[in-house]
Design brief:
The complex is a heterodimer. By secondary structure, chain A is of the alpha+beta class. Chain A is about 30% helix and about 30% strand. Chain A contains 6 helices and 12 strands. In chain A, strands 1, 2, 3, 4, 5 and 6 form a 6-stranded mixed sheet that branches. In chain A, strands 10-9-11-12 form a 4-stranded antiparallel sheet. A two-stranded antiparallel sheet of chain A has the order 7-8. In chain A, strand 9 and strand 10 form a beta hairpin. The longest helix of chain A has 30 residues. The two termini of chain A are about 35 Å apart. Chain B has a single domain, classed as Ribosomal Protein S5, domain 2. By secondary structure, chain B is of the alpha+beta class. In chain B, helix 1 crosses helix 2. Chain B is globular, with a radius of gyration of 18 Å. Chain B has a 5-stranded mixed sheet with strand order 1-2-3-5-4. A 4-stranded antiparallel sheet of chain B has the order 7-6-8-9, sandwiched between helices. Classes of the chains: A alpha+beta, B alpha+beta. Chains A and B meet through strand 3 and strand 6 of A and strand 3, strand 5 and helix 4 of B. Chain B: Keywords: Acetylation, Cytoplasm, Exosome, Nucleus, RNA-binding, rRNA processing. Chain B: Its main location: cytoplasm.
């Protein structure tokens, strides 16, 4: 049962004429759930809840719930880059998160999201792949980052990136030595160390309404009614990592600049939240 | 049995429980907004999520529709990070398909499907962390989710696993106890009438011991029923007071 919306509109307004219903709010520069055009939904973060994973995080962006679990495995490094490890992200949009998804192999949206996350990891250089190498040419870590959406209410890309970042910071990998005589890996489970995360990319997604109005952090209803999307990923040094605009309504340069500025403030908000949560975990 | 002693001389198990003691259970209903009904349960370290959509029109092949009842569509899925070793195929492998079928059969016995002819009820279960008793956690979570969705049930469906060590039946096995080998029984029960919805037993067991194992498991299911009932009533109280305000 959803009794979350602040205004309980008559059902025919939300079902029969959803666009008109949203337009009424946009005229007053706000949205049906009471937010302003540039306001993000409440973000909650929970780190390290899954003990079987090497690192995990659960993110709630309003109703959108994403969980990320990272597991490290050992493998031979790639032939063309013997001093690097692998990072393999995978986004899963199961039918349990929304009735729009059917059981079966990953759909288009899930695959596109997985590729987007892979691009962000590579472009932002949040983690040096050389750090994952244990012995050049022989052994390296593979980090499998599995991101599962549990509740789909719009804007999963932002939530996925936050979940990924938080769980990367939570990952603890044991020390591994390659025994020279036997050539086998010896894992020391007692000595664990965190990953060296050098950059903190944060995404901000926008939806374009009626070819002109930009709203930040769209919910599922707003996504269905919008005419275009844009996602901007910025790291803490205010450097652009990714700009993702998959077709849709053309945007002017100034609108793009607005998006970038909003993304910069969002990065600060999220990093603050992340630091707060990590501090409270260390205190335990 | 070599290696770890599952039952100490004083009668305590590896995690300090008595043989007929359940693990700590924490459950919440109505956790997701998109679904018609949802629930989250933690039994010890096993974390399971269940989500229910329906009853709604049949999607996909119309040929599956039944003229006098609803069809139940289940999917059991384990997160890749839920087990100690990374699970390569979260669903679609044989074990998951078997669990899916068991869940479907269990709930076909419990849900009053005759009230919704020509429609479909979807039950999706996701295991976030697996520490033994996966099937039981799924069934318990799914029961709560079905109640949350407002779909009529004959009775709660409570499930529990049981084992047998040194002439003592053990209840609610953890992963360690399951992998030690030995007999394992999964039981799903409709507690008020003590009707059995599903029984599955692995490994050899002398038929004299079967009765004591079944009794222990049924009693555990009844204890579980008390816990789940408490969760439902508390949730109902919370929801009605917030609507009233």
């Amino acid at each position: 049962m959803n009794t979350n919306s602040l205004t309980q509109a008559p059902w025919h307004q939300t079902t029969v004429e959803p666009l008109e219903y949203h337009r009424k709010f946009l005229k007053e520069n706000c949205r049906p759930d009471g937010r302003e055009l540039g306001e993000f939904r409440t973000t909650t973060l929970n780190i390290g809840s899954i003990t079987t994973a090497d690192g995990s995080a659960l993110v709630k962006l309003g109703n959108t719930t994403i969980i990320c679990g990272i597991k490290g495995e050992l493998a031979a490094p790639p032939a063309d880059a013997p001093d690097k490890g692998y990072i393999v992200p995978n986004v899963d949009l199961p039918p349990l998160c929304s009735s729009r998804f059917r059981p079966g192999p990953p759909g288009e949206q899930a695959q596109a999201a997985s590729q987007f996350i892979a691009d962000v990891i590579e472009n932002s250089e949040m983690l040096q792949r050389e750090d994952l190498c244990i012995e050049k040419g022989k052994l390296s870590w593979v980090l499998y980052c599995d991101i599962i959406c549990l509740d789909y209410d719009g804007n999963i890309l932002d939530a996925c990136i936050i979940a990924l970042l938080a769980s990367m910071k939570n990952v603890q990998l044991p020390e591994v030595h390659v025994n020279e005589q036997t050539g086998l890996a010896e894992v020391n489970m007692k000595k664990k160390r965190h990953l060296n995360i050098v950059k903190h990319p944060v995404a901000a997604s926008f939806a374009v309404f009626d070819n002109s109005i930009l709203i930040v952090d769209p919910t599922s209803d707003e996504e269905n009614l919008s005419t275009g999307f844009i996602t901007v990923v910025i790291d803490e040094e205010e450097k652009l990592c990714t700009v993702h605009k998959p077709g849709g309504t053309p945007l002017s340069n100034e609108k793009l600049q607005d998006c970038i500025n909003r993304a910069i403030t969002r990065n600060k908000e999220v990093c603050k939240l992340l630091n707060k949560v990590m501090k409270s975990m260390k205190a335990k | 049995m070599a290696g770890i002693e599952l039952l100490s001389d004083q009668g305590y198990r590896v995690d300090g429980r008595k043989p007929n003691e359940l693990r700590k259970i924490q459950a919440r209903m109505g956790v997701f907004s998109q679904a018609d009904g949802s629930a989250y349960i933690e039994q010890g370290n096993t974390k399971a999520l269940a989500v229910v959509y329906g009853p709604h029109e049949i999607r996909g092949s119309r040929s599956k529709s039944q003229h006098d009842r609803a069809i139940i569509n289940c999917q059991y899925s384990m997160a890749t990070f839920s087990t100690g070793e990374r699970k390569r195929r979260p669903h679609g492998d044989r074990k998951s398909s078997e669990m899916t079928l068991h869940l479907k059969q269990t709930f076909e016995a419990a849900i009053l499907t005759q009230l919704y002819p020509r429609s479909q009820i979807d039950i999706y279960v996701q295991i976030l962390q697996a520490d033994g008793g996966n099937y039981s956690a799924c069934v318990n979570a799914a029961t709560l989710a079905v109640v949350d969705a407002g779909i009529p049930l004959r009775d709660y469906v409570c499930a529990c696993s049981a084992g047998f060590v040194e002439d003592t039946p053990l209840v609610d096995l953890s992963h360690l106890e399951e992998s030690a080998g030995g007999t394992q029984l999964s039981l799903a029960v409709l507690p008020k009438a003590e009707h059995l919805a599903l029984i599955e037993m692995d490994s050899r067991l002398h038929q004299d011991h079967l009765e004591s194992m079944m009794d222990a498991a049924t009693q555990a299911c009844k204890d579980l029923y008390a816990v789940l009932d408490r969760v439902v009533r508390d949730h109902l109280q919370e929801v009605t007071t917030s609507i009233g305000e």
